[in-house]
């Protein structure tokens, strides 16, 4: 790629981690196309294009547009996503399906759309934004957690399938990050009084965690590192807490980890 500018797509790039990542990649020399569900002006050299990852036609049109403008796609960062805070029992199957349509099937749509382009090039890289909760349970976030666990399994398997084609897949796992993520957080569609106090406590804890979390720029720096790695790893922690939790998940005995989870979430032993 010494004679051609590398081209990247970053989904969900209107704010937060997505915008910070798009800017960081642009600074690193990529030509960057960021996506948002609603029309948005270009930002700091990032070319913004409209795309809804839950819509097949919208995704395909985006990829065609990028190839038409830039001729290639070297990097896809699947960042678009939303949350759902509440007890597992409080969400209908329809609501859960809607969350998975963004967080999981949106990744699948984007990936399937860029793979033929990358395969023709003989190279490419896909970075899927996972989370610290892609490794652990998080009470009152059961379905958001489930989407990230799904992305973890999908990404690891996909990497084995397409590696021979010169394409690699990696996961970035942020912890709490200072963004407006709570603005896209969905409420359960079937709330139950028995969970009211615990749900409010979980919401308060999440907001406090976001306020004290890592900067989006820290996560963006990890993405740039992965994009430039000659021999990329599958998983990359983003931030001190993510690194610590990953270590505990791997090496702490199950009963110890269970106690840690309950204590961290202020649940009775």
From TrEMBL:
Family matches, as InterPro entries: NAD(P)-bd_dom_sf, SDR_fam, SDR_oxidoreductase
Stretch forming the signal peptide: none
Key words, A-Z: Oxidoreductase
Keyword Coiled coil: no
GO molecular function: oxidoreductase activity
Pfam families in the record: adh_short (PF00106)
NCBIfam families, per the entry: PRK06179.1
Family: Belongs to the short-chain dehydrogenases/reductases (SDR) family.
Protein name, UniProt field: Short-chain dehydrogenase/reductase
Species for this entry: Allorhizobium taibaishanense
